[in-house]
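To close the chapter, one final illustration. This time we ask the reader to focus less on the individual chains and more on the assembly as a whole: which components sit near each other, and how the overall shape emerges from the parts.
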Amino acid sequence: MQNVQFWGETLRLVVEIAATVAFAMSGVMEAARKKLDAVGVCVVGFLAAFGGGTLRDLLLDQRPFFWVRHVEMLWGVLALCLLAMAFMRGRHFAPTAKAIQWPDALGLGLFAATGVHQALLLELPALVAVLMGLITGVFGGVLRDVVCNEIPTAFHDHRPYAVCAFAGGWIYVGLWHMGAPGWLALVACVVVTAGLRGLALWRNWQLPAWRT
Amino acid sequence: MQNVQFWGETLRLVVEIAATVAFAMSGVMEAARKKLDAVGVCVVGFLAAFGGGTLRDLLLDQRPFFWVRHVEMLWGVLALCLLAMAFMRGRHFAPTAKAIQWPDALGLGLFAATGVHQALLLELPALVAVLMGLITGVFGGVLRDVVCNEIPTAFHDHRPYAVCAFAGGWIYVGLWHMGAPGWLALVACVVVTAGLRGLALWRNWQLPAWRT
Amino acid sequence: MQNVQFWGETLRLVVEIAATVAFAMSGVMEAARKKLDAVGVCVVGFLAAFGGGTLRDLLLDQRPFFWVRHVEMLWGVLALCLLAMAFMRGRHFAPTAKAIQWPDALGLGLFAATGVHQALLLELPALVAVLMGLITGVFGGVLRDVVCNEIPTAFHDHRPYAVCAFAGGWIYVGLWHMGAPGWLALVACVVVTAGLRGLALWRNWQLPAWRT
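The assembled structure is written out below.
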């Protein structure tokens, strides 16, 4: 039993680090495309990696922020941004963007789950909890795109992203209200969110568009 | 007397719902113009409807947010966005934009009044209370425009919008400090704000521009 | 001794007012370039002057905001914006932009120092304190540029700005942890930040760019 918990914790840590790296890299690459300077690359990397969780904590009035409790994550993302500036070149962008799709999908699931989890602990209504999950998963990318003066990708590329987190969030809330154990709700939320996102990428699903 | 209060409450509820619908529709139409997908349409609708009040509560450190206390408003706006996607077409845009000007003006007045009211309850200085009213009424639209990668309409279309809320806010503060009953200050603020906005639309008033 | 403290307080007040004026003017001029109306000019001036400090207080959960405690600063910036609209013309822009570089550099240092100071009082980790200083000094300008639909200057003009505040922040944290008196740490932070910024302007230093 101890062992299971240990492996669970380790697995979660690995997923969390992979997801944060994927989110930060998405910011670094967008900043590079926009020809920002070294400061801009780091700031946009930070916004993409930590923006969603920070907005969640701000809305839920939770302090200290998770990056204050785990300040080593700030150092890690700072190092990642500087290393990317030193070693990454334009020709690495397309393969990197392809490679980070999978940890990014996992991160979407994991971040959404943490948002739903915290909102449920505060006894917020079901829809609010699901929206908190969606905000945690999606708004890092939204802040990244707003600062880079783009319409957020999550809102106009017609591939399901936020809706996966929305669906996964309802799974979490459903299991929670049925009295399922916490780890099961968390795992189910991550699996459903990341699975839907993976299917959407693989089958090239499209969101309904406005019919003018 | 009971009756007066009942009708007052009902009237306020009707105005509030009409205003929220008007604000959400302004977001839905801007999102459609920018060709956002279904997620984008809903998010921009939510930002326009709830952004200003949420920013007010965040700045004043008020929890729970009003949309946590009235979660049925979230469901309503979600349904509104999805219905708009299903039934609204490009040719409906111009008449809708014209029709929502009036509930929008009422909403500006009502939202500004709630902002001033909350700030006065917290005993904040007069100018701060007026600014909180302005932020509540105006920043939903600002967030909508920023996410859609536009300069906020409220800041560059040269028709008085925020200044109406500014004027109405001072009426509220003035009546409050003269010891007038709360409902009178609220009604006066809404009437002055919405009235000035209506006059500005009708007489086509222009704000002073920068003379280069 | 009394005298020294008096002159210290007075000096700080003078620097603070000069810096706030410089920050507000940067907002006013950007709003004018974007042809915003009177409301837009005032809002962007306010965002540039008060945005960074407000974001700091929001993240650190400090209330009341500094502009609630010093409401005369709100009145001052409002008057400044209106006076600029009345008397400033296009031909004043280039000399004003040049003239405000120096109070702006001082303001960057002073605002960064207040951010670091507050974070250290809350016993936050060193890197978080330095980032709070950076956010306080830089994000007023970031909000100004985002609302004006530009990529923030601080992130893409390749002249050191935020990195000066970053360096100055570490000086503050270093002296604080060595037990130096508070005023010394503050002065050192301001001198290092403003000095580096001044050198960067004078010698035309460039930040490393992305090599594609």
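The mean pLDDT of chain A is 90. Chain A has one domain: 2-203. With these observations in hand, you are ready for the problems at the end of the chapter.
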